Structures are given as structure tokens and as C-alpha cells.
Amino acid sequence: MALDPAEQHLRHVEKDVLIPKIMREKARERCSEQVQDFTKCCKDSGVLMVVKCQKENSALKECLTAYYNDPVFYEECKMEYLKEREEFRRTGIPSKRRLQKLPTST
């Protein structure tokens, strides 16, 4: 049974695991300032980070949650996933491998 590369139907694992993974990665990029602030605070605070970094942790959680709950952001990530899946079905090469530089013969 050959799969149509342009098929838009999503399996449960794609909806519940793969697209949310893309959302997490993109949200962390877009909340990079809050990620950096929280990371710096944790490094500077050592064992007391739980107490000392509550403000930074709250800001990071708020930023990430805003993206996770945004239906437009979900659709953007879904379309990115579908595009990658279509390309994989067409070529048989995962996107991470396609992006790697091919070795050149000398």
C-alpha cells in the first residue's frame, strides 16, 4: 500500500507526539530570552534554584504556555510537519539527513 505524499490525514501519534514536539522546539526558540534568564539563574543559584528562580521559571512557563495554547501556532507547526512528511514520502530521506552536508569526493 503506497502512501500519497500529499495526504493530509494525521495519525494519533502525529497529533499527540510529533507535532507537539515541533511546537516545544519552536516555542523554546521563540522564548529564548526567558530560557536564557532561567538557565542563568539556575547556574548562579546552585541548590537554591528552586527558591531563587521562581520569577524566571514563571516567566518561562507563561511564554511557553502562550505558544502551546495558540491555535495559529499549532496550525503553523502542523503545516511544517505535513511538509516534512510529504517530502519524506516523496524521497524516502528523513529531513534531518537531507539537511546534512553530503560528503564530496576528492
UniProtKB/TrEMBL annotation:
The keyword Transferase does not apply. Its main location: mitochondrion. One of its GO terms (cellular component) is mitochondrion. The keyword GTP-binding does not apply. Keywords: Disulfide bond, Mitochondrion. It comes from the Eukaryota. It is found in: Mitochondrion. InterPro entries: Cyt_c_biogenesis_Cmc1-like. Belongs to the CMC family. This is COX assembly mitochondrial protein. It comes from Camelus ferus. The gene is CMC1.
